[in-house]
UniProtKB/TrEMBL annotation:
InterPro entries: FAD-bd_PCMH, FAD-bd_PCMH-like_sf, FAD-bd_PCMH_sub2, FAD-linked_Oxase-like_C, Oxid_FAD_bind_N. GO terms for molecular function: catalytic activity; FAD binding. Transmembrane segments: none annotated. The keyword Protein biosynthesis does not apply. It comes from Rhodobacter aestuarii. Residues 1-171 form the FAD-binding PCMH-type domain. It comes from the Bacteria. Keywords: FAD, Flavoprotein. This is Glycolate oxidase FAD binding subunit.
Length: 357
C-alpha cells in the first residue's frame, strides 16, 4: 500500500484493522516487524530557507534530493547520513523519513551529533489516525513529550512520519584526512590521541587494509595548520595527509564498504570508544570502527550470536541481518517506559509489532 498525502496516510491508519509495517525506500529492512506494508511516498521539499539554515520536507523525499538541494547552497545535513543499500543488499532509494526512523548518523556524529540532534520538527500519524506535530523551525519544544527526539530511532513503532524539519550547517570549505597504517590492536591508542587533541577532529575510525583515519574540516588555512600539528602529535605512526582525495575514505566508512557483499550476519555495536578495538578483536572476521571506536560494525559466521562473542561490553548491539532479534531486550525500567509510550501513541498495536520488543 502506497500513500502520497498525509490525509491519505491518516485515513489508512484510522481504518486499519491489523498490523502495518511502515517503510520509506525499503533500504533498511531491520527487525521482524510484520503486517501490511505501508510505503510512505509523501515527497518534496516544502520549505528551504538557506539564510536560516532550515529545511522541511516530506518523509518520503529521497535523501539524495535533500543532499543535492542543500549542497547547491553550500550547506549540508550535519550528521552525514549514508545509504545502506550495498551493505544490506537492498534496492530502492533511501528516504529522509527512513533516515530519521533509524537515526542514521555517519562519521561526523562525534563532532556534530546524531540525526536526532539536527532534527527540529516532525509531523506524524499516531495509532488513532490523528496527525501530531511537534517542534518546528526553531529548536524549542514546549510540550510534555519531546517527540522530535522520540521519533528519531523509533523504527516506526510510535507513529508513521509524514514530515521532518532540520537545522543545517554550512559545508566545510576544506578537509584533510590523516591516514596511519596501524593494526586493530593499536587503534584505540591512536584514535584516543587524535580525539583528545585540541585540533577539532570531525571523524575518526579504522578501516581494514587502510588503518586509522582522522578527519579535520574548516577553512583551508585552519585545516592545513591543524593537520600539520596533529601529524606532529601522531608522528610515531607515520601519518600521511590527504586533502580532497581523502573524502572517498569517509564515504567508505559511512557506507561500511569493507563489509559490503561479505558473507555472514551483520552486527553493529554501540559501545564505549575505549572498548571498541578490544570488542572488534573478540568478534574476529571483518570489522570496521567508527566514532573513535564507539561504533563497531562486524560480519560474523551465520547463526553466531555476536553479543556472546563480544561480551562483556558497555553499550548495546543490533543484529542488522541474521537470525537473531534485531534489538537487545531493554532493562526493565526502560522497557516499562517503552510500553507506556507505545500504549499512548499506538493503542491498537498497529505499528511494526515485534520489531523492538
Amino acid at each position: 500500500m502506497r500513500v502520497t498525502r498525509e490525509s491519505e496516510l491518516a485515513d489508512v491508519v484510522r481504518e486499519a484493522t491489523g498490523p502495518l509495517q511502515s517503510i520509506g525506500g525499503g533500504t533498511r529492512p531491520v527487525g521482524q516487524g510484520g503486517g501490511t506494508a505501508l510505503q510512505v511516498a509523501i515527497s518534496g521539499i516544502s520549505l528551504y530557507e538557506p539564510g536560516a539554515l532550515t529545511l522541511i520536507a516530506g518523509a518520503g523525499t529521497p535523501l539524495r534530493v535533500i543532499e543535492d538541494a542543500v549542497a547547491a547552497e553550500g550547506q549540508r545535513l550535519p550528521f552525514e547520513p549514508a545509504a545502506w543499500n550495498a551493505l544490506l543488499g537492498t534496492t530502492g532509494e533511501s528516504t529522509i523519513g527512513g533516515v530519521v526512523a533509524a537515526n542514521v548518523s555517519g562519521p561526523r556524529r562525534i563532532q556534530a551529533g546524531a540525526c536526532r540532534d539536527s532534527l527540529i520538527g516532525v509531523r506524524f500519524v499516531d495509532g488513532t489516525g490523528a496527525v501530531v506535530k511537534n517542534g518546528g523551525r526553531v529548536m524549542k519544544n514546549v510540550t510534555g513529550y519531546d517527540l522530535v527526539k522520540l521519533m528519531a530511532g523509533s523504527w516506526g513503532t510510535l507513529g508513521v512520519l509524514s514530515e521532518v524539519a532540520f537545522k543545517l550547517l554550512p559545508a566545510a570549505p576544506a578537509q584533510a584526512t590523516l591516514v596511519m597504517d596501524v593494526p586493530l590492536a593499536q587503534a584505540a591508542k591512536v584514535l584516543s590521541q587524535a580525539l583528545g587533541s585540541q585540533f577539532d577532529t570531525s571523524g575518526a575510525g579504522w578501516l581494514p587494509g587502510v588503518g586509522v583515519i582522522v578527519r579535520l574540516e574548516g577553512l583551508a588555512d585552519s585545516v592545513a595548520y591543524r593537520a600539520g600539528k596533529l601529524a606532529e602529535v601522531l608522528a610515531a605512526y607515520a601519518p600521511k595527509i590527504l586533502r580532497d582525495e581523502g573524502a572517498a575514505l569517509w564515504r567508505d566508512l559511512a557506507e561500511v564498504k569493507p563489509l559490503q557483499g561479505a558473507r555472514g550476519d551483520l552486527w553493529r555495536f554501540s559501545v564505549k570508544p575505549s572498548e571498541g578495538p578490544e570488542i572488534a578483536a573478540r568478534l574476529g572476521g571483518k570489522v570496521v570502527l567508527d566514532w573513535g571506536g564507539g561504533l563497531v560494525w562486524a560480519r560474523v559466521a551465520e547463526g553466531t550470536d555476536a553479543r556472546a562473542l563480544a561480551a562483556p561490553y558497555t553499550g548495546h548491539a543490533t543484529c542488522l541481518s541474521g537470525a537473531f532479534a534485531a534489538f537487545e531486550p531493554e532493562p526493565a525500567p526502560v522497557a516499562a517506559l517503552s510500553r507506556g509510550l507505545r500504549a499512548r501513541f499506538d493503542p491498537k498495536g498497529l505499528f511494526n509489532p515485534g520489531k523492538m520488543g
